[in-house]
Design a protein that fits this description.
The complex is a heterotrimer. In chain A, about 30% of the residues lie in helices and about 20% in strands. Chain A has 15 helices and 22 strands. In chain C, α1 crosses α3, α1 runs antiparallel to α11 and α9 runs antiparallel to α11. The chains are: A alpha+beta, B mainly alpha, C mainly alpha. The interface between B and C is large, with 62 and 69 residues.
Chain lengths: ~550, ~280, ~290
């Protein structure tokens, strides 16, 4: 009896010990000189022309050679494979002069024929190539290559920020699309294990050299691990398996700051915004009185005034966010309206404005003139801790006005269905990611006819005079040749939005990153890809 | 003579005392929780925004959470809410499993075949999507308490098949046990033997109940991702347990372990009460 | 003889009915789940256009449920599992490598979980005075969410997916095994044998375990269900490229062809586990 029991216990402990040996979360072994970080999901495609998600875009950025690059730090367009470029006065003709002696990663030479073919391919793919859309009228664009070093693009009409469009067109060998296996950029796709990693290796024929004449890129390769799990990512970073983390959530930023203080950096407000809006669509299935509240400017302004944005930033983001009042972040120095007057936190003013608008209190509960209690739900996406905290804080803030708020988190497809298709929601709290500081990139959000005009999508004619004015001003900035006139138009739109509060801006989340002390050459930028925009100049300490 | 049940074990007296003690402790715990929740000035939703992750103090005996809410009141309220919901759901699902399993075992061949087939189908279907449909059928303004009740009911309705299969096996064996055959031979009708079957299923049903309670507490919290479950500002025990999977929160305060310790205590108490005497 | 043939016919008939019912059920559940015809990228001005084109194709494809089902059934009967919606590659290519990973994980964790549970319950159930103390580790493991357990492993850098799954299975099965063993241990004939001084190990091997064989088989199918339900959180947190992780991504992307393949594999696993030893005699008795 005694013997049996003891041996059984021993066996049990041995099993546990043996099991303990299986270590958690092993990353693939790192090749010498290789940089490693994580991307969230599998890239949907390696074809640079067909990129339509953020992870595929990262791969294209690292592998694709482009005629022009939009420098993420200086926010200026710079020539790359093109030695120089010029835009005609009417903005309709672009001439690129290629560098001499360019080669693809397989050693074959790169000429204007390849560049022209790559541009044409994007144009011909039409809706399958999101970059084509940016030419406004892609089917009318023509491309010529009069000699082996020149490419000429003719546009039917002027396009704002056309230089930046070429940042998204990777030059591939003519008639030999290779899905990133033959490239003219710093890296080449070498290996792809679905749901595990994408391995890129150095392109030995990449043209660029550093100031000392050494050929770039420095790193022998890059491994992008497919991992959508901050917990694992932080562990692997702390173990030195990953060299950087971009888009660090604020709670994990604090964790890393405590455990490895020198590696984290708060880059200040990003271009992104977190906002809340009410559903103002006249065709939504909401009851008429709720639509009336949401379409009432006084109601929206009162809500905006009741929200303590400082608390949102301090509590939901551990201080790593900046209170927001406009759709343009102060990080966007050129376009941010410094003279904006927006409703600030003032609960007393909110209460008196509600009284003036016909609302009244029954006990502590707010009612509209017809006696309907003011109750609504705020929708947000599940899995974003900061957003859920903000929603709960706002719930409390609005309770001070007598509003009863439900917070509902849904998974993204269900959320999008309500926002974009059934329009069956009252209010929503979401963020908007801005990858481009240029306000022209936000046309889809502001034009009243756009399906992404969230508070009232796809209006046939502008529903209100102020929306009509926003349309006019946005069109003015899109067509004007004069920079100060464009700035004026965008400032005006910011002011209208601040007055009307169709989007109640909450915070600009700060860009939070972690960089391994071994990684050299990082110059963080607020634009994507924040840490690796100069990937060809990054290297690990101690490798040549 | 038909009882195949456990022999009265040695030390029966201590067992009974222990059993009664556990019942008193659990009742005391519930009473204390109730007192904490309804005490004047107690609020599970009031946010003290200057005291985030505060340490224990006279005003907050168990500190505060990430939004500055009193942890003790929240845990007490969650104990009452989640435990009531999860126990009710676990009891329902166990009863369902017993009913279906026993029905299959006593039914004729074709009915039995169909029931067990449906059990297998039920086990394999992705019910996650049903929960999504339930959410989309409910108005967004459904109050958090009602949404919680509905969630627990749905969980109860989905939890039975795995155990039903085990019950079915158990009942089949009992049906063919000597004492049962003897009873049948002696002329007892099926309905008369049935109440002897149930006590003999307890070794299957009790663990099923005990395993279901924590599983449902956690499942409720996981369903928060679909917009179901106990919504803010109501405290959810499962939600507090899920804080344990975020190492960033673990670093803030040791009090995050409080709910899980309490759950273990409650489960042990329930176990002690239900230990077959 | 005829009876035997009939009994043999029952098995494939049962399997086939299960597969068809599961296929229909899954298609209905996924197709009518909220968000089947929406895409996160619709919110992103850069990718909205591409997303809308894909959705329009899916809308026309999924217009009629009957048509969807007949396409699926005819595809499956030809061995074609369709194309994944999110990855746009044949489902087979996604499933096969992952099936091996998940199969290995399941097998290892079930075997180890059982070893722990059986040894634990023998120690706890076969004593003279089983103390509540033995329940503590199992209750502890049940009270901690799987995800939290996985996080603890990550934090400590020890243990992996197999350990977490095995402990979970062990904790659940322990609850059942402990009671079964205890009950068997207190049966009159065993008590008698114990009084006569027969060795515990002999009693266990020769009398207790054989008498529990049927219930143990039933428990086996229960632990497969437990393991399958823990598969998703464990694989997601440990980033194991298995079916659980794929199922989770497919659910978030409403990837019907992938979900269909996974649920059918689950159905086969669950059904086969129910056919485990001990089944045959029952069928013949039935």
């Amino acid at each position: 009896m005694h013997f049996t029991r003891r041996s059984v216990i021993c066996a049990a402990f041995m099993q546990v010990a043996v099991l303990g040996a299986y270590c958690a979360g092993q990353a693939a072994p790192r090749l010498p000189g290789e940089l490693v970080w994580a991307i969230g999901y599998d890239p949907k495609t390696f074809d640079p022309a067909k990129v339509d998600d953020i992870d595929a875009e990262t791969v294209r950025y690292l592998t694709g050679g482009v005629l022009l690059r939009f420098n993420r730090l200086t926010q200026k367009v710079e020539p790359r494979l093109a030695e120089s470029w010029s835009l005609s006065h009417d903005g309709k003709t672009i001439v690129f002069k290629l560098r001499a002696g360019l080669r693809f990663s397989d050693g074959s030479s790169l000429t204007s024929r390849d560049a022209a073919w790559s541009i044409r391919r994007v144009l011909l793919l039409g809706p399958d190539a999101p970059a084509a859309d940016e030419f406004v009228n892609p089917s009318a664009v023509t491309v010529e290559s009069p000699d082996s070093g020149t490419v000429i693009v003719h546009l039917p009409q002027r396009v704002i920020g056309i230089g930046k469009v070429f940042d998204e067109i990777a030059v591939e060998p003519a008639d030999r699309p290779s899905e990133g296996r033959i490239t003219s950029g710093p890296f080449v796709v070498a290996d792809y294990r679905r749901s595990q990693f994408v391995r890129l290796r150095r392109n030995p024929y990449y043209y660029e050299r550093d100031s000392a004449g050494a050929s770039l890129p420095y790193a022998t390769g890059v491994r992008l691990d497919i991992l959508n799990n901050t917990e694992q990512e932080t562990r692997l970073f702390l173990r030195g398996e990953y060299d950087l983390i971009d888009h660090l959530p604020p709670d994990y930023f604090e964790l890393l700051r405590k455990q490895a203080g020198s590696t984290v950096r708060d880059l200040g407000p990003s271009l992104n915004t977190e906002q809340m809006w009410f559903n103002q669509s006249p065709v939504s299935p909401l009851p008429a009185w709720e639509k009336a509240w949401f379409q009432n400017r006084a109601f929206r302004v009162a809500v905006s005034q009741a929200i303590h944005r400082d608390d949102l930033a301090r509590i939901a983001y551990f201080g790593h966010a900046t209170p927001a009042y406009s759709f343009i972040s102060p990080a966007n120095r050129l376009w941010y309206n410094r003279n904006l007057s927006a409703p600030r936190t003032d609960v007393a003013a909110a209460r008196s404005a509600l009284l003036r608008a016909g609302f009244r209190w029954s006990g502590s509960k707010l009612e509209d003139a017809a006696g309907h209690p003011v109750r609504f739900s705020i929708l947000t996406n599940a899995g974003n801790a900061a957003r859920q905290k903000m929603a709960t804080l706002i719930q409390q803030d609005l309770a001070a006005l007598g509003m009863e708020v439900n917070v509902v988190a849904l998974d993204f497809p269900a959320l999008i269905e309500r926002l974009m298709h059934t329009e069956d929601y009252e209010a929503c709290l979401l963020g908007l990611e801005n990858v481009d500081p240029e306000p022209n990139a936000m046309m889809n959000v502001w034009l009243s006819s756009s399906p992404n005009h969230q508070w009232n999508p796809s209006e046939k004619t502008p529903a209100t005079p102020w929306e009509a004015e926003v349309d006019r001003e946005m069109n003015r900035q899109a067509t004007s040749l004069n920079d100060s006139e464009r700035k004026q138009a965008v400032d005006r739109v910011q002011q209208i939005v601040a007055d009307q509060q169709p989007f109640i801006y909450l915070v600009y989340p700060n860009t939070l990153v972690a960089i391994s002390p071994r990684l050299q050459g990082v110059e963080p930028a607020v634009l994507e890809p924040e840490l690796v925009w100069n990937a060809e100049r990054l290297r690990l300490r101690g490798t040549q | 003579m038909f009882r195949n049940g456990p022999w009265p074990p040695a030390g029966m007296g201590t067992r009974m005392r222990f059993h009664r003690l556990a019942a008193w402790v659990l009742a005391g715990l519930t009473a204390v929780s109730l007192a904490i929740v309804i005490a004047p000035g107690a609020s599970y939703s009031r946010q003290d925004r200057e005291q985030l992750f505060a340490a224990a103090s006279p005003s907050h005996p168990a500190g505060t959470d990430a939004l500055g809410r009193d942890r003790l009141v929240r845990v007490a309220a969650a104990l009452l809410l989640s435990l009531a919901g999860a126990s009710a759901a676990a009891a329902l699902t166990t009863a369902g499993a017993a009913a279906v399993g026993a029905m299959a075992a006593f039914a004729t061949g074709a009915v039995r075949w169909t029931i067990m087939l449906l059990c297998d189908v039920f086990l394999a279907l992705p019910w996650l999507f049903l929960l999504m449909m339930v959410r989309s059928a409910l108005p967004l303004k459904t109050s958090p308490a009602r949404s919680a009740a509905i969630t627990f009911m749905v969980l109860a309705a989905l939890g039975w098949p795995a155990c039903a299969r085990a019950v079915y096996r158990g009942v089949l064996e009992l049906k063919n046990a000597d004492w049962m055959l003897q009873a049948r031979a002696a002329g007892l009708r099926r309905s008369q033997t049935l109440h002897h079957v149930v006590p003999n299923l307890l070794p299957l049903l009790l663990p099923q109940f005990l395993v279901s309670v924590p599983a449902f507490v956690i499942a409720e919290a996981n369903l928060g991702a679909l917009g179901l479950g106990i919504g803010e500002p109501l405290p959810s025990w499962g939600g507090m347990l899920l804080e344990l999977d975020n190492s960033a929160i673990l670093l803030q305060t040791r009090w995050v372990y409080f709910p899980v310790l309490l759950l273990i205590l409650v489960l042990l108490l329930v176990e002690a009460i239900m230990v077959e005497a | 003889m005829r009876k035997r043939v009939l009994a043999m016919m029952k098995w494939p008939a049962r399997m086939l009915s299960i597969l068809i019912l599961v296929m229909t059920g899954t298609t209905i559940l996924v197709r009518f789940a909220p968000g089947y015809l929406s895409d996160e990228r619709e919110m992103d001005p850069r990718y909205a256009q591409a997303a809308r084109i894909e959705l329009a194709e899916e809308t026309s494809r999924s217009h009629s449920l009957l048509q969807m089902l007949s396409t699926e059934v005819s595809g499956w009967s030809r061995g074609d599992l369709g194309r994944s919606r999110q990855f746009d590659i044949p489902v087979q290519e996604l499933i096969w490598p992952r099936l091996a990973v998940t199969g290995e994980l399941l097998l290892r964790s079930i075997v180890l979980g059982w070893m722990i549970a059986i040894s634990g319950s023998m120690v706890s159930g076969v004593g003279r005075n089983p103390s509540m103390l033995w329940q503590l580790p199992a209750t502890l493991l049940l009270a901690i969410p799987t995800a939290a357990m996985a996080t603890l492993c990550l934090l400590s850098g020890k243990g992996g997916p197999v350990l977490v799954m095995a402990l979970l299975i062990a904790a659940r099965d322990f609850k059942f095994l402990h009671r079964m063993l205890r009950k068997a241990w207190l049966e009159p004939h065993i008590l008698q044998a114990r009084a006569q001084g027969i060795a515990t190990s002999r009693l266990l091997v020769a009398h207790v375990l054989p008498s529990l064989a049927g219930q143990l088989a039933a428990l086996a199918s229960l632990s497969i269900v437990t393991a399958l339900s823990a598969l998703v959180p464990v694989e997601v947190i440990f980033n194991v490229p298995g079916l659980g992780q794929l199922a989770w991504n497919a659910a978030l992307n409403r990837d019907l062809p992938v979900l269909l393949a996974i649920t059918l594999i689950m159905a086969i696993a669950v059904t086969c586990s129910g056919m485990a030893p001990g089944r045959r005699p029952e069928w013949e008795r039935a």
